[in-house]
Structure formats: structure tokens, C-alpha cells
Design a protein that fits this description.
241 residues, alpha+beta, 7-stranded mixed beta sheet, 7 helices, 7 strands, 24% helix, 20% strand
């Protein structure tokens, strides 16, 4: 029996839906109840929030396909320890109900990525204010505001620590009380002196090590698909007419 469980409540059935990846474009009629989204961490199976395998069609450099395999899921817990201190401070206005994390590796086991979500205590206005601040102040591009890796002994992510972080993304949602994040690095444990935000590391032709290795694509591709899984889990199933 596989014991990858986030809390005692992750035993319910998964449901599917059709939220758009861009939460700002989602119509009110298509959005689930905001408060219901806050309960997902203890009411949805872990395999629905963090699938064992993620397929990223066209998610790699040049539109290459990617496949990522989950190596471990962290126990749910507080935000303390999951983020650099300044990022933790930046998230304080929305409160941290729970942080959920999992680590994945690519098909060649050459890269590792920790992806997660912060379930917040904020209302829609609070999330909108935080998203605006991140955008206006560029908080998602500062190298002193990074998510931290979830290292897993005995896996390709065993040496994945602060110095190994190469690229990252942080996305503040407004249609759900959730912040989605991901941070990637090399599986061989090599340190990276100058990590790059995924938005920069995915620019074609960039000569930096994170960009050349596709680590920006790893962080963004996995984060996007975990965000999609969150929305699918939160959307009520359609009732037959």
C-alpha cells in the first residue's frame, strides 16, 4: 500500500473540470466556490493534486515533450522552512493555512523540481492585492525570494538544497486562495551561482546554464500542470441533464 498522503483527509474521489490555466480569464460561472478550494488539501487524493506522472506535451525547450515522475510527497505543514525568509514575509498578508509539496524528476533523472502550493487564509481581495504586489514589485523575479527544495534521500533529489536551486516560478492565484510555486535544479547536486526566474530562463537563445539545461521549462511546465490539476480537482463534475 502506497503511503503518500497529505493529511488524514486525502481519501476522497477525484473530480474533473475545465478551468482555464489563466485564472484571470475564468468566468464567474466556471469558478468553484472559493471557500471549497481552500478545503482541497484534506479532501482530494494526493494523486490528484500531485500526479505520479506528469506529461508535458511541448513543455520543453523548442516545444519538446517532457515527462516527469514524482519521487516523493512532503507531509503537509506550515510555510516556515518552505521558503526563503523574505518570500515567507511577502506571503504573510494572505496567511498560510498549509503548504503542500512534492518533488519530481525528468525522464533522464538529470533534473529535479520541487513543486507546491500554499493554501492561504485570504479572501479574493487579499489574493488580488498580493498578486498585484508581486507583479508591480517583481517579487517573483528576486533571487532572495525563492521557494526551497524538498530533498529526498535515496532519490535523484537527495542533494537538492538551497545552493542547487537554478530556476523558479511563483504564481499568485486570484480565483482560489492558493499560491503555486516550483523550483528546479540539477540532479547531480551541482551548485548554481546565479539562479534565474523561469520567465527569463525560458527565453529562446539565453546562454545561461539554467536556460541551456531547460530548467526554466522544468519549473514552469510542472507548476502549470499542478495548477491545472488543482483547478480540475476543485471544479464540480457536470451533472447529467
Amino acid at each position: 500500500m502506497v503511503c503518500l498522503v497529505l493529511g488524514l483527509g486525502l481519501i476522497g474521489g477525484a473530480v474533473t473540470g475545465s478551468w482555464l490555466l489563466d485564472d484571470s480569464a475564468a468566468s464567474p460561472a466556471s469558478q468553484p466556490l472559493y471557500t471549497d478550494a481552500r478545503k482541497l488539501w484534506h479532501s482530494v487524493p494526493v494523486d490528484s493534486l500531485f500526479p505520479p506522472t506528469i506529461k508535458g506535451a511541448g513543455a520543453g525547450p523548442g516545444g519538446a515533450d517532457r515527462v516527469w515522475t514524482r519521487v516523493a510527497v512532503a507531509p503537509d505543514g506550515p510555510c516556515t522552512g518552505a521558503f526563503d525568509p523574505l518570500l515567507l514575509r511577502a506571503l504573510q498578508p494572505v496567511g498560510c493555512l498549509r503548504v503542500l509539496r512534492a518533488t519530481y524528476t525528468d525522464a533522464t533523472a538529470s533534473s529535479v523540481t520541487t513543486v507546491g502550493m500554499v493554501v492561504t487564509e485570504a479572501d479574493r481581495d487579499g489574493m488580488a492585492a498580493l498578486r498585484k504586489r508581486f507583479s508591480e514589485e517583481g517579487l517573483d523575479e528576486r533571487t532572495d525570494l525563492l521557494p526551497r527544495a524538498y530533498a529526498v534521500p535515496g532519490t535523484p533529489a537527495a542533494g537538492f538544497g538551497d545552493r542547487q536551486r537554478a530556476s523558479w516560478t511563483v504564481s499568485v492565484l486570484t480565483d482560489a486562495p492558493v499560491v503555486v510555486f516550483a523550483v528546479s535544479g540539477f540532479a547531480d547536486g551541482r551548485p548554481v551561482a546565479d539562479p534565474m526566474p523561469a520567465a527569463e530562463a525560458t527565453v529562446p537563445g539565453d546562454a545561461s546554464a539554467p536556460a541551456q539545461a531547460g530548467l526554466g521549462h522544468e519549473a514552469k511546465g510542472i507548476a502549470d500542470r499542478i495548477e491545472r490539476a488543482l483547478r480540475e480537482s476543485a471544479t464540480p463534475p457536470e451533472r447529467p441533464e
